[in-house]
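BUG: 3D viewer hangs when loading the predicted structure for this chain

Environment: internal workstation, default settings.
Expected: structure renders.
Actual: progress bar stalls at 90%.

Input used:
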Amino acid sequence: MIDTGTNSTRLLVAEMDDGGVVELERRTTITRLGEGVDSGGSLHQDARERVRACVEGYARLVREYGAAPAMLLATSSVRDASDGEQFLKGLAAEFGFGWRLLSGDEEARLSFRGAAMGFDPDDRVLLFDVGGGSTEVVLGGAGSVSFARSLNLGCVRLTERFFRSDPVGREELDRAGDYINEMMSREIGRQRHAGSGAKSVAVAGTASTLAAIDLGLSEYDRKRVHGHVITTDGLTRLLARLAAMSTAERLKIGVMEEGRADVIVAGALILDRLLSFTGSGSFSVSELDILDGAAAELAAGRL
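Structure tokens produced before the viewer hung:
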């Protein structure tokens, strides 16, 4: 399974065991496919080339493992780009993969499907998936989803739209925060308190990077990141710390990937606004996400 996301292209090679995903290989490469899509409406040629080179390398790993079936997924940036589906089809055909351009609701439900593998079946969970181009908010439990919504809020999209200063200016943060609040009120306002009492869980690169920083890790450790809890106060401190740094200074943090340092403030701001809007006091970080959910659905013949 390969996910061509707005900020990163990710690979999961796995075996299915009694409905669970047994990871054999997992890779993440920052490729920024969504660069400029928010303003220009189409994929940049250099972004296309970065993703194609990455997928070519992943395809060699897929062949080495003899993994089948193999599929390319695409989400927000490809949905939004006028030439996105054409690019995805061509990429899939070149490497002999199946392909699927997910709707926002499908993206939300697959993220929940993956993260749910780490839940107690009786847990009621409010899931946040902050990506490069979109953010998914999902409420569910006991094997079913009661609410799922994809918002056009992502760390790349928000950074390109609002942030010009380095470090980020206070007025820029305030304008971006107001924009997030307005969109959440419009799109999920009626469900604002639906997740009251639910366990809040966050997935994807922003949340996992924040967890690694909060833990003080010098090298990324998935086992320690998975399940780490970040409180509202902790997130406020992380956001203030990162916003006060330049991109170059953020890159000196040991767990910070190049290509995430310039968008991590926007991602942290989205999570901060989500916690405030939903009244959640904290979130736990899950390393299981849309890749795991999609792999499980593909193996079951439902994708």
